[in-house]
Amino acid sequence: MTVYRSTPKEDSMIHRKKLKRVLQADLLKAFRENKVPEEMIKNLEEKIAELGEFIPTVGIFGKTGVGKSSLCNALFGKDTARVADIDACTRHPQEVFIQMSQDGSGITVIDLPGVGENKLRDAEYKALYQQVIPKLDLIIWVIKADDRTFTVDESFYDEVIKPQLELAKTPFLVVVNQVDRLNPIRDWNTEANQPGLAQMKTIGERTHWASDKFRVPTHQVIAISAVEKYNLGALVEAIIDIVPNDKKLGFLNQMEEDVTTEKSEQSAFAGIVEYLKDAYKEIKPYIPEIIAALKWLFKVAKTIVI
C-alpha cells in the first residue's frame, strides 16, 4: 500500500481541536455535572477517543474520466491527486492510505477498475467486487453529469453491485460530477460559483435520472463539481448522514475544513450521543440534561431520540 502524506491547514487543525474539545471535554464535563459515575465516564472517554481514531475505507466506483481523482482531492486534500495516476485498464483495485495528520489518522481510498471493457473482464471484476465490497465502509459511484451512456453500468450494478450492497449493507451514494460542464456552459455563474437557472433545471433532471437508474432515493444522489468545489458541503452532509453512528466522527475527521458544514458537525455529534446512549444503557436517563447543558447541541437535540 502506498502512503501519501498531506499537511493539514491551520484552520483545519483548529476546527478538529474544537470538535475534539467538545467531545472529550465539554461532553464529559456535562456527564460529571449530572453525577454520572466516574468509572463510566472513563469508559466513555476511551470510547470517544476510539471512535475519533477510526480509519474509514471508501470504495470509489466509476468509469475513467468521471472525476474520481478530483473528487478525492476536494474531499481529502490536494496531495491525493496521485490516487488516480494508474493504468486506466488495470484489473486490480488501487488502494491508497491518505494520512491526514501527524498522529496517523487518515482514510483509505480504494479506486476500483471500471466496467464495460469486455465480458471477460467484467466476469473478473464480478469476483473482485464480491471480495472487496464487504470490506468497505462507504461506496461512492461517480458518474459524469452529461453522460447518458449508462446501459453497461446499469447492468453491472444490477447484477453485481446491488446484490453485494444488500448483503453487506454497505452505505451507498451516487455522485453526479462535473455539473459545471452541463449545457448551457455559459450559464454557470462564475461570481457565485454555482449553476445558472437553466443548468439547475438540468441538474434536477439528472439527479432524478440517476435516482431512477440506481433505484435509490434522491437524497442519495448528490450533484457536484469537484473542480469548482460546488455543493461539496452537501456531499459531506450526505456521507455523515448515511454512515453508521459509530463511524460518523471518523469520517468527519478526514474531511477538508472547507467542505465541512455546521450540519455535518452536528450530525456527527448527534451520532456519537446516539451511539453512546445505545452502547451504554446506563447513561440514557442522563441524556436530556446533558443535551440541555451543551449549547452547541441545541440545534441537534431534537434529532436525538431520548
UniProtKB/TrEMBL annotation:
Organism taxonomic ancestry: Bacteria, Pseudomonadati, Pseudomonadota, Betaproteobacteria, Burkholderiales
Coiled coil: none
One of the record's GO cellular component terms: cytosol
Protein name listed in UniProt: GTP-binding protein
GO terms, molecular function: GTP binding
One of the protein's GO biological processes: tRNA methylation
Gene3D superfamilies: P-loop containing nucleotide triphosphate hydrolases
Pfam families xref list: MMR_HSR1
Organism: Caenimonas koreensis DSM 17982
